[in-house]
Structure formats: C-alpha cells, structure tokens
Hints:
By secondary structure, the chain is α/β, with parallel strands linked by helices. The chain folds into two domains: 2-155 and 310-326, Glycogen Phosphorylase B (Rossmann fold, 3-Layer(aba) Sandwich); 177-308, Rossmann fold. The protein is 38% helix and 15% strand. The strands form three sheets. It has a six-stranded parallel beta sheet, with helices on both faces. Strands 10-9-11-12-13 form a five-stranded parallel beta sheet, sandwiched between helices. α1 (15-29) packs across α12 (311-326) and α6 packs across α10 (277-288).
Amino acid sequence: MRIMIAHYNPTQGGGAESAVRDQAEALRRLGHDVHVEFVDPIRAYIQQRPDIVHFHTIHVGWHLTPLQWAQAQGIPHCISLHDYWPFCGTRMLLKAFDRPCAAVDGVCDGDCSGAPADQSVRPMVNESPVVTFNEHSAAILRRHGVRVDVVIPHGIDTGFFSPPQHGAGGRPGPVQIITTSAWPEYPTKGMHVLRAALRLAGLNAKLVAHVPREQVRDELRNASVYVFPSCYEETWGLGLTEAMACGLACVSSDVCGPREQLTGEPERGILVPPRDPEALAGALKRLAFDPDLRDRLGANARAWTAEHCTLERMGRDYEAFYRQVIDGRA
C-alpha cells in the first residue's frame, strides 16, 4: 500500500510529529510505502498518487484547504483528531487560562473566552473518516456531533523506549522525578501546576524539553518517577507512554489519554485531578518515599506498554482501517 501521512508543522518538533513518525515506521515495518509530508500535501499527492492520504492536525497552517480538496477529488483519506477543533474554537476545551469548559463532562454551552467555533467545520469533517486515540476523547467528540470511525491508540518503539539494564523499577540511587514536554511554556501542559505541587511536597523535578528523542529516552532511564501534569483533555499523551515503556512509576492528571493508559489492573500508575497541586503533591510524596510502590508501578507500566503500545499493534490497526477506507467501507 502507498500511504501519505500529511501533517503541517514547519518546526517538526512536537509530540504530534513524533506520533506521526512512529506511525510511519509502524507501517513501513509491515512493508508499506510511506511518505510523510510536512509542507504541501496537494502537490505531493499529485506527484506520488498514494492509495490513501492520512491528515494529521490539518487545521494548523493549512486551515482546511487540503481536506476540502481531497473530499472534492474523491481521494481515499482520513483525519486524525489530536484535539477538539471540529467543534471547539480553542481546541482544548479550556477557557480563562487553564479552566475546563462545560464540554468536558457535558455539552458546550458557548460560554468561552477564546475564539468561537466555526460552525461550518463540523459538517465538513463529518464527510471524512475520522480517527482518534482513546475512547474518552471519542465520547466527547461524538457527544458534540463529530464523527469518529475508529479509535487507534498510539504505539511506540518499545525496544527503543525500554528500561535500563537493571530493569523496570528498582532504580539505584536517590529518587529522581522527571517530566517531559515539547511545549512546556504552554499553560495547557500544566507546568505551573507541577511547580506548585513540588513546592508543597518539598521535592524537585527535572524538565526535559526541546531535545532529541534519544536524549529523552536516556533521561527517562536515569529517572524513577514521571509526572504528566496536563490541564486539558489530552487525546493521548505520548510522553507518558514513553515513560511507562521505560519502566517509570508515573503520576498524571486524570484526563482522557492518560486515563486510558493508567486505568486498569494491575495498577500501573496514579491519576490525580487536573489543576490540583495538593493532590499532585500528595501523589509525588507517596512515590518518593515508597520504593516498593515505585517498583511495582514501573514494572506494571512496562509490561502494559510492551503488550498494548507497540508499533506492530498500531501498524496492524492502521493497515486494517486504511483498507476499509480504500474499499469504501468507512
């Protein structure tokens, strides 16, 4: 199969870009011909004539022109929704800096301090097959009239992101707390909440940002506790997956993507209410002073990602979905 994955971002340095590259690698391992296009999907399609085009976060930079073009031409394609842009003007279900809106647990009430939603977008999106990454985000989207055809969780290279030689959990030396983010300066990522929690707990944490992925992996291997303090309903949370695969004990805001990753048996992490420094401080102190808990959560997190978050599983899921789209069954 010839596949074009289109994702506009000139810097090519965020978490979504890592997810796109992981998806491309997963499909290449299955023998597919994959081209990742960051600049001009229309021209690339005309030159390459792939069997299917997969659009990622096309609202950035391109607006919706490539999607409208693909729809008008009858080109087999699908869309990934990394956030809630088809019905939410702010994309993140947030208002007033970092506060959640009514759409998180109910239906949008229009009381928003951000940009109003373009009412023409949702019906346009609903003309195309749509992918999202967890069932909780899918429920929010569907509740607001957005089509979701399939839920495909992200996968990563669990050989690359793996525990150090001494294994999942059991990190030697003092406890090291770490967080990673491609965009830590954005309030949506919750670093202000983490700073407040660390002050309350009397602890320190290391922020790893704007570095190559190899360095992220090495920093994770040297740490023992990972924090994902996001303030919005993340559709996945790739940094959390990477930390889990490296065998870290993880604590995260209880938002959509992390909830999908950390909820279940056996226990593989701690969820705390988003935007709650006191709750986050309590979870961090619990992990900092309980080595048995750290070891157990880290080992369980590694085992879960090695089974459920592999490139092989993700590649097979996308392969099956693409065939449905090409055959007109999606």
